[in-house]
Structure prediction request, 240 residues.
Amino acid sequence: MGMADKVLAAAERWLGYLEKRSNSQLTSLGANAGDGNYTIFAVRYKERWGEDYQAQPWCAVFVSDMLFEGCGREIVPHFAYCPYSVEGFKRRGQWHKDKPKRGDVIFFRDSRGVACHVGLVSSVGGGKVVTIEGNTSSAAGVVANGGCVRKKSYDLNYAGILGYGRPAYEEDEEMSYEQFKAYMSQYQKEQEKNANVPKSAEKAWPMAKDAGVLDGTMPNAPLTRAQYAVTLQRLGLIGK
Prediction:
């Protein structure tokens, strides 16, 4: 099961969850239901990141929690305010206006065109995008403070969709040493005139170090062409 599938599986376990009227019975799907914006997701958000958003709108808190829960680490910087995350996805080159994929983070706009609500893309097909959202309702269209976790459906051309952030699920998957060698070989020609090495190659650097083919320091900056050549040489992919 890939990381996107794990994130969606984590979210699906909470379908039907109702926010609580007080700080009680937070793990129950339906008990103590009310409109107080109390949730278990805010508790876990505070435990992980030390920020307390209990009793506040929680769609972004829910998405941050599900991404962490499914991936086992912070693959996307946690966020409780949608516009900040939109800008982050744009800075990382992970922002898309259309053609969503399963596991994408879907953002909705308000009347000013500002991100006001967020969810996860569960599936795409038949001209529709199906989502799992926290703090919404079963009513049609965007409901930005509805109090429950629901699966919803929108036309792909729905005007309320602002865009999609695409976490680097595949790049963040664990790689074996043999996978790392194959990956570096694949990118050898493409990188000969480029000082940058893909993020997944940088992530695999410690694996290569443990295998005894590198001298041991993970660079903070992108590899230079010389460093890249030495790496390939030590992997036996170019001439000695």
Notes: The mean pLDDT is 83. The first strand starts at residue 95 and ends at 96.
